[in-house]
């Protein structure tokens, strides 16, 4: 395999792994995808090491020259959840391995996957945030007012997080803001409901609204990576989940404590 093709193959495989890792894929899945892509183009030696913040890949051809060895490192600075992109890269990987797809076409396909537009902000907020929060409120024993309150609070939380993400706001501070917004909206809705003599459980509204921010994928991947023996990735993802949960709690606690200090928590 000529040098330019070896280099381009590795870049393509690294790009596929980057897309997966940035969108919530497990460590083992990223490593397996990179390895399969490279070995499908006759690399006898492929070694991929993936952590939540970086990808390390080395490939080698049969030969005595050190020029045969190619190594790349990719730093991952931002992560999110878009399992549609993970599924699309999985499908691409299968097509690439089972065919003689040109490298230029493969790179173009990966770029198209990377540029896939997510659901619109309104759909994400109303369906992803509002309905999720509302049904979680029912799950925790809420009534119809709590259902509607959690729907409104969850939608506003997702709108807030989406707008903060566009400005590359630090994730820790974003989750603090999200928790603060959930508590603030719940308190305002409690005040409005008291004016019309409707019983609204603020605790359930807040719980339903913040459930849309709970790092479920991070927790699942932490357990999955730890079971698979990827201890570094497992600990890193577990730490990420703890930090997210802590930031949410800080945001909610700050608003509730502030309300208690200012007005004695009279609406609670």
What's the helix and strand layout?
Layout: H1 3-22, H2 27-39, E1 45-51, E2 54-60, E3 70-75, H3 83-97, H4 103-114, H5 121-139, H6 144-166, H7 171-195, H8 202-210, H9 216-227, H10 231-263
Antiparallel strand pairs: 1-2, 2-3
Helix pairs in contact: 1-2, 1-3, 1-4, 3-4, 5-6, 5-8, 6-7, 6-8, 7-8, 7-10, 9-10
Outline the structure in words.
Keywords: Cell membrane, Membrane, Transmembrane, Transmembrane helix. It holds the Pfam family ThrE. InterPro entries: ThrE-like_N, ThrE_Dicarb/AminoAcid_Exp. The protein is mainly α. It folds into 2 domains: 112 residues, no CATH class; 143 residues, no CATH class. 68% of the residues lie in helices and 7% in strands. It is built from 10 helices and 3 strands, in the order H-H-E-E-E-H-H-H-H-H-H-H-H. A 3-stranded antiparallel sheet has the order 1-2-3. A hairpin with a 2-residue loop joins strand 1 and strand 2. Helix 1 packs antiparallel against helix 2, helix 3 packs antiparallel against helix 4 and helix 7 runs antiparallel to helix 8. The radius of gyration is 23 Å and the shape is elongated. The mean pLDDT is 85.
* Oligomerization state: single chain
**Main sheet: strand order:** 1-2-3
Decide which structural class fits the backbone: mainly alpha
Total strand segments: 3
End-to-end separation in angstroms reads 70 Å
β-sheet strand percentage = 5-15%
Alpha carbon gyration radius: 23 Å
């Amino acid at each position: 395999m000529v040098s330019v093709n070896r280099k381009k193959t590795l870049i393509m495989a690294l790009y596929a792994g980057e897309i997966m890792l940035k969108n919530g894929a497990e460590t083992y899945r990223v490593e397996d995808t990179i390895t399969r892509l490279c070995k499908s183009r006759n690399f006898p030696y492929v070694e991929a090491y993936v952590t939540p913040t970086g990808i390390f890949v080395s490939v080698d051809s049969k030969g005595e020259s050190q020029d045969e060895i190619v190594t790349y490192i990719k730093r991952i600075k931002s992560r999110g959840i878009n399992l549609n992109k993970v599924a699309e890269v999985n499908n691409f990987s299968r097509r690439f391995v089972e065919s003689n797809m040109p490298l230029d076409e493969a790179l173009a396909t990966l770029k198209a996957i990377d540029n896939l537009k997510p659901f619109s902000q309104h759909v994400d907020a109303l369906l992803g945030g509002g309905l999720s929060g509302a049904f979680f409120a029912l799950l925790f024993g809420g009534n119809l007012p709590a259902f509607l309150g959690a729907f409104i609070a969850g939608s506003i939380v997702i709108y807030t997080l989406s707008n903060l993400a566009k400005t590359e706001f630090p994730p820790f501070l974003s989750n603090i803001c999200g928790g603060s917004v959930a508590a603030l909206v719940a308190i305002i809705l409690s005040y409005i409901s008291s004016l019309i003599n409707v019983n609204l459980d603020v605790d359930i509204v807040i719980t339903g609204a913040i459930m849309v921010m709970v790092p479920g994928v991070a927790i699942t991947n932490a357990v999955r990576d730890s079971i698979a023996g990827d201890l570094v990735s497992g600990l890193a993802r577990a730490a990420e989940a703890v930090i997210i949960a802590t930031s949410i709690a800080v945001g909610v606690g700050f608003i509730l404590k502030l309300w208690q200090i200012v007005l004695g928590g009279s609406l609670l």
